[in-house]
Amino acid sequence: MASKSKILVIGATGYIGKHIALASAREGHSTFALVRAAAAADQPLAKAKLLQDFQAAGVTLLDGDLYDRASLVSAIKQVDVVISAVGQSQLKDQTKIIDAIKDSGAHIKRFLPSEFTLDVDRSNAVEPAKSAFALKVQIRRAVEASGIPYTYVSSNGFAGQWLPTLGQAGVTGLPTDKVVILGDGNVKVVFVDEDDIGTYTVKAVDDPRTLNKVLYLRPPNNILSHNELVSVWEKKVGKTFERVYVSEEEALKKIQESSDPLNLIYAILHSVSIKGDETNFEIEPSFGVEASELYPDVKYTSVDEYLNRFL
Amino acid sequence: MASKSKILVIGATGYIGKHIALASAREGHSTFALVRAAAAADQPLAKAKLLQDFQAAGVTLLDGDLYDRASLVSAIKQVDVVISAVGQSQLKDQTKIIDAIKDSGAHIKRFLPSEFTLDVDRSNAVEPAKSAFALKVQIRRAVEASGIPYTYVSSNGFAGQWLPTLGQAGVTGLPTDKVVILGDGNVKVVFVDEDDIGTYTVKAVDDPRTLNKVLYLRPPNNILSHNELVSVWEKKVGKTFERVYVSEEEALKKIQESSDPLNLIYAILHSVSIKGDETNFEIEPSFGVEASELYPDVKYTSVDEYLNRFL
Questions:
Q1: Does A48 touch chain B (CB under 8 A)?
Q2: What are the residue boundaries of the NmrA-like domain, all occurrences included (chains A, B) (predicted)?
């Protein structure tokens, strides 16, 4: 770890990409973000904030995208590490990144394809989530076949997505009287602050311990069952909520009866909240490492602290 | 206006598209939304809320997108009116919608291409905003050449984008001591609540007065100069702010010196806030109509009311 690698983030204006790009700059890496200029014309004021944050942090903006090969190759040639944070609809097109890395002649020391969910090789998801996760599996296999050094970041749940509704889907805010819980509510789920996902991701890029491994984010204070999560919140607000449980049978029925794309969402929730796919296996040294163990110096935001923001 | 047209919204999960789809259902139209199923896998909980809102409102979700021709043609065949709310990076691909309308054999009574900004045929934008707006101009010409009946919705400024920062770019919230104002701050700008944009847009689709015309949104209580906007807020909070003016010369220099895509954002702001492109021309009956005049029954949210949300 003599010097810090130069990092290119693809998908840097996306939900998790922005946290990664800012973490990269914060951690002292020369950071480049491949950004489609046209996209800035939608919601210019919101985009101005983000892009000015990037500039203030020292992130270099490069005009281009996945589908502009020249821009992609040129960006890759400037860096040592490529992190992809593209969304679901661009997952399969990450083969363009693999091809560009190979053809560029650049010596890319690490490629992190877009993951940032549970471990897609170890999920018990039913359809249509199974096929959605399979796109990430296919990219894993393509990365491995390419010989490019890699790390897969299994970040598990985004705190910013789960905690504002206390883990409930289809509602806007915190519970007032009832809490809907998938399954028996005893399955352990992981909630990680998006800034911490960025930090752990960036810590991994120059670390030989994460080479060709899955980096799991399971900070001990952030692994809670849905029942535990509700109890933590109940204690904070001094109030109890009626817990309405949805059985696996009901959940599966809902998946089957729902049309695209709601069935996909319900199937993802089934995998996380009923099958426990974020936590139902041990991390073996042969395939993975855990982030909070590797980087004990990272002062991650605990679920307890995160929930205090809503008081 | 015997019966209400069936409406297809393309880009319905986008920033303005969701307001249009919900307004369409609220106004009693059979409403269809073409949604890419895969996109639901990103941020499933947030998407679940929106899609469940669609379902609760009676919006029929159709799996597909602009790039899946069969899905597009099949969706078009089910409706009378097509509203596109796609983002900047898909603007040019709206030719696929035009082609699909022509080839489907469907009798589409009205097509509303994605506009929802100032009138792109009447802007004084400098580069690179000029070229960005030109994509909408090109689609206008393609629509006119196709003979498909149309309406262009010049919605002007999104209140939800401009008002939370009191019109300032690159900041997160309301001013605490200073307010940065582009130009002399006396140019009139229009701020329209996104729900109202949805309502006015949908009102227009079955209205012969908007046929082959531009529908301008200029609700009288929502046309303010930046100086007036700041004064309204100052009065509400009982405090005055230091007004920092950025001259046109400085703004143009900033556009020239900024890299992609910040230069685009600054050039859009220059067009709106310095050139006054939302308000610097009269609406002539030959090409346009004004929404609040056509639909005086719509109780639109005034800027004054909107700002009260921040108190």
A1: yes
A2: 4-307
Q: How far apart are CA B43 and CA A152, in angstroms?
A: 19
Q: Quote ipTM for the complex.
A: 0.84
pLDDT score at B2: 56
Q: Which long-range contacts (CB under 8 A, 24 or more apart) does A251-258 make?
A: A251/A182, A251/A183, A252/A126, A255/A126
pTM summary value: 0.91
DSSP letters for A96-122 = HHHHHHHHH-----EEE-S--SS-GGG
- Judging contacts by C-beta atoms under 8 Å, the chain B residues touching residue A36 are 89, 261
The amino acid sitting at B101 is I
CA angle A305, A308, A309 (to 5 degrees): 105
Could you tell me if B291 lies within 8 Å of chain A, comparing CB atoms?
no
DSSP three-state, residue A289: strand
Q: Report, as an integer, the average pLDDT of A219-240.
A: 98
HSE (side-chain half, CA atoms, 13 Å) at A201: 38
* Cβ within 8 Å of residue A141, ≥6 positions away: none
Strand partners, B289: B215
By the 10 Å C-beta count (0-12 exposed, 13-18 middle, 19+ buried), B284 is classed as exposed
Surface-to-core class of residue B186, CB atoms within 10 Å of its CB (0-12 exposed, 13-18 middle, 19+ buried): exposed
* Cα angle: A27, vertex A25, B260; to 5 degrees: 170
Catalytic residue flag (residue A102)? no
Tokens of A255: 């998946």
pLDDT tens track for B88-114: 989 999 999 999 999 999 999 999 999
φ, ψ of residue A229 in degrees (nearest 5): -60, -45
* The two structure tokens encoding residue B281: 């021309």
Q: pLDDT by residue (tens digit) across B268-291?
A: 999 999 999 999 999 999 999 999
Rounding to the nearest 10 degrees, give the CA dihedral for residues B250, B253, B258, B260. Answer: 110
Q: Is B139 on the interface with A (CB under 8 A)?
A: no
